[in-house]
Write a structure and sequence with these properties.
Helix content: 55-70%
Order of helices and strands: HHHHEEHEEEHH
Strand content: 5-15%
Number of strands: 5
Shape: flat
Number of helices: 7
């Protein structure tokens, strides 16, 4: 009985966590824009219009996407970025947030390349990690080995974790996709990927090894 309840709780967290984060982010954007627009509308017409904040939030997001997709818009955002980076304290927050978003959303290269196993925090104890890429020789070349950067997330919250710099030979490829790897972490091992659906990933990992 207790095991079933624990399994249901962990599975529920795995299902609801992405939804909760998405809703929280969208709600935060809505509250921010609606607060500004609401004051302007109240000043102009003297009353609040229900639903107007939501419509303007959608319009602002669409407009930002349209601007960022053309040359003029990219120049405007570049100018905005220069201004943000000159503001004390705000520049640090903006820089970190932008780096995270760029790493997640970029289409030319995946932020995480492969799922691997690595011994951590001690020998004989294995954890799931995600290959970020090769470790820069200028920083980590003193070891004399081929080093790689790994992100080892915490369970069940993969937004925190550890950055490990380890020899490539100490990693063991796992024949699953990065998406399935995150499902495994978020569900605390309950959601196990179907290896039959990962044959292509397995072949790629084998040839890469």
């Amino acid at each position: 009985m207790l095991k079933s309840i624990r399994r249901y709780l962990l599975t529920g967290i795995a299902v609801l966590l992405p939804v909760a984060v998405t809703v929280w982010l969208l709600w935060s954007i809505f509250v921010f824009i609606d607060g500004i627009v609401g004051r302007i509308i109240m000043f102009m017409i003297g009353r609040h219009l229900p639903g107007l904040g939501f419509l303007i939030t959608v319009a602002v997001v669409l407009l930002a996407g349209m601007l960022a997709s053309n040359l003029v818009g990219r120049k405007l955002f570049a100018l905005w970025e220069v201004v943000m980076l000159r503001i004390p304290l705000a520049n640090s927050i903006y820089k970190v947030a932008k780096q995270i978003v760029d790493s997640i959303s970029r289409h030319d290269k995946q932020a995480f390349r492969d799922v691997v196993l690595v011994e951590f925090p001690r020998r004989g104890s294995w954890v799931v990690g995600f290959l970020v890429g090769g470790a820069e020789p200028a920083l980590f070349g003193q070891t004399g080995e081929d080093m790689v950067k790994l992100f080892v997330p915490t369970v069940p919250n993969p937004t925190s974790g550890y950055l490990l710099i380890v020899p490539r030979k100490d990693t063991v490829p796992v024949p699953i996709s990065v998406e399935d790897g995150f499902k495994l972490v978020v569900s605390a091992g309950i959601v196990v990927p179907n290896l039959a659906d990962n044959n292509q990933v397995a072949e790629t990992a084998a040839t890469g090894r």
